[in-house]
Amino acid sequence: MTVARQLTINNEIATVESPDDEPLLWVLRDRLNLVGTRFGCGEGECGACTVLIGGRPVTSCSIRVGDVSEPVTTVEGLASPDGTLHRLQQTILDLQAGQCGYCISGILMRAAALIERLGADLTEADVRLELDAHLCRCGDHTRIVAAVLQAASIKQ
Ligand code: FES
Ligand code: FES
């Protein structure tokens, strides 16, 4: 059954109509046109669809929209409202840490949450462990890890 609901997404209230059991990923992409969040495996295995819910990384293909009760942040909400990129977006660009880019939005979300949590204390081992949940078919892992470490070292 389709029901109307309100979600807080990227600090704005969005009203959507969808069944409770529709994956959040489809609500974001198909109903709200937030297509920066990618569909990869659809089974919680690749990390491409990762968003933040209540500040924690969640694969949006594996959560029902009816179970979402905290604010959602997608890659479209990572930059500042004035358009200034998040420091991790900037270091990924600076280090060219992406080829096709398909995996990058999910990695950005999980790694941004990690930087938020650990800041400059972040180690390479922390990054590798955390990003183990993400596949990158282009094999850009080394540059991605370097970009995360560089972003974490930037004073805010
Ligand atoms: S599409 Fe969600 S984890 Fe792969
Ligand atoms: S940059 Fe292509 S999948 Fe990661």
From TrEMBL:
Keywords: 2Fe-2S, Iron, Iron-sulfur, Metal-binding, Oxidoreductase. The keyword Iron applies. Transmembrane segments: none annotated. The keyword Transmembrane helix does not apply. Residues 5-78 form the 2Fe-2S ferredoxin-type domain. InterPro entries: 2Fe-2S-bd, 2Fe-2S-bd_dom_sf, 2Fe-2S_ferredoxin-like_sf, 2Fe-2S_ferredoxin-type, 2Fe2S_fd_BS, Beta-grasp_dom_sf, Diverse_Oxidoreductases. One of its GO terms (molecular function) is 2 iron, 2 sulfur cluster binding. This is Unannotated protein. It comes from freshwater metagenome.
